[in-house]
Each structure stands twice: as C-alpha cells, then as structure tokens.
Amino acid sequence: MDTPLTRLVGVRHPIVQTGMGWVAGPRLVSATANAGALGVLASATMTVDRLREAIREVRSRTDAPFGVNLRADASDAGDRVRVMIDEGVRVASFALAPSAELITELKDAGVIVIPSVGARRHAEKVAAWGADAVIVQGGEGGGHTGDVATTVLLPQVVDAVDIPVVAAGGFFDGRGLVAALAYGASGIALGTRFLLTSDSTVPDAVKARYLAATVKDVTVTRAVDGLPHRMLRTELVDALERSGRTRTLLQAVRRAARYRKLSGTSWLRMVQDGRALRHGKDLTWSQVLLAANTPMLLKASMVDGRTDLGVMASGQVAGVIDDLPSCGELVERIMKEAGEARERLGDL
Question: Are 1 and 338 contacting, i.e. CB atoms less than 8 angstroms apart?
C-alpha cells in the first residue's frame, strides 16, 4: 500500500509502532521493521550510551528503516539528537512538540522529523517549523492523552496541515487503517497492539493482565503525575487515587530515589524533567516527582512484572485484543483486513 507516509520513510506498509518506554526496545523495533512497518525505539528510559548501543543492536537485526522517539523537553535532548545523527537514524519522533531549532538541526542532517501532537494548533505549529509529518493521537490512546476522540481530532488536523498525518488512538486492525485513510491520514500508529505481540519483551503475566481487560478496565487518571494518563485500572492506581497529599509525597520520593539509582540521573535533573512535564499545570511537588519518575512505575510492570508496584499504560483497544501474534503476523493480518475492507467498500 503506497501512501505519503510509506514514501516518506521508506517502509512497505503505512503502519507505525510507537515508542513505548520499556517496551519498544531493539527486539520489538527490529521485528516491526522486518515486517515492513516503521518501528520506533523508545529512548526516554535509556541513558545516552545505552541509546547508542540500542540503535546499533537494531541495525544488527534489520536493514529496514526505523526511528527513535525522544522527549523534546528532556535536559539532554541535544545529546540524544547527536547520537541519532552520528548513527544515521532515519526518523526522529517526539512525544511532545520539539523546538524549531531542534527540527532544523535534524532536518539539516537528513533526519525525518515526525512529532506527536494532541491538538490541531500543535500540528499547525510544528508543520510551520518544518516537521515532515505528524502523528495525531486522540483520547483513546494510551499514556498521556487528551480528551478529544480520534474521529474528531484527526479530520481537524488533516484539514489544517499539508504534510502527511498518521492517526493514533483506537487502532488495532485493518478496518481502522482503511477508516484512517478515508479521513485523509497516510497511515496509523499503534502502541498497545504492538505491546501485545510475541515479539514484545513485556512479561507474560503482564500481557495476560492486558488480554483479560475489558474496555471498562481502561481508565484515565491524574493521580500518577497530575496529567491525564490512560492506563489499566490496578490496585496501585486505586491506592494513588485514595492517598492523601503527605502519603503521595512519601511514595513519590521513595520511587524517585529508586529511579535515580537505576538511571544515574541527578536529583536536580529529575526535578527539572518533572517540571518540564507540567505543561503549565499547577502540580504539587509530589506530582512533579511522580512525573519525573513515572518511568520507574512503568518499569516495575513492563520489565519486572510487578503490577502491584507499577502502572500499565494502555489504549482503550486493550479491551478488544485477545491474542499475541508476532509482529510479522500482525502486520500481515492488518494489511489483509485492509484489503478486504477496501473490497467491501468497492462493492458498495
């Protein structure tokens, strides 16, 4: 299927695997790339040195194009960009809109820039700054999310910019791909669906929790870091929502200390990164610390399998997914379903 996205990044299929922290590592990214879709490596939970190693590991597993996801507001974003340029990464994606200067630096080095946005005005801004494409995530998507449904947000963005638009939030099959194309998108981005594959390194017991979830088990909470965060409802989420301010602060400090030890990050940098996540919100200090060490809460589940100690970011589609195909099987299935959906439309 030939679309502006496939032509831009050089992949066979208009499907993007999103950069999920602790999930989108070299194994998942290379499996996605070998399946003909765009795999995106999550760098926010890596040190700069580990990022370089991970890029080289992906390249050792595949000759296909892949991308790296960055936090534009991270204090070491410049160092990570230089690693990407040095290592010849083809695509840079961003969880938040990068600055005009960062976009220019990447484009001057021949890197394709694809920010993720959750509002039309953000898409217009990064397009004016020179972004090559944009991923637009509706409220159905997992992790930090907005409250506007993809079916409302997507056509707004498609009408507002003249660069390829990739639709995210609520997609898991070929019917969704065709629907996104009908809206004017050039492809779809999937997170939870790729998390729930056999190539994902997420522990089997955690995958089982996702597979057992219904649509009603996926919730949006502000208790983790003060921002809307879509995830599976767990005992920890319930406890955070019931906790008072003092108890929450103590928990935040304790988890922040664990994340600092794991990542080698200084307390100052953690607070700076946490404050950068505020987006102008009036967050308490406990929420700032929780925002800074949310990666630790994700690691507890996604790596250690401790769902009692961690959180599980999730799109609403977790409630309709019931299997664990390989990335190759998943991409092949999506494209087959898309072909069938187009034939049905042709019959009409």
Answer: yes
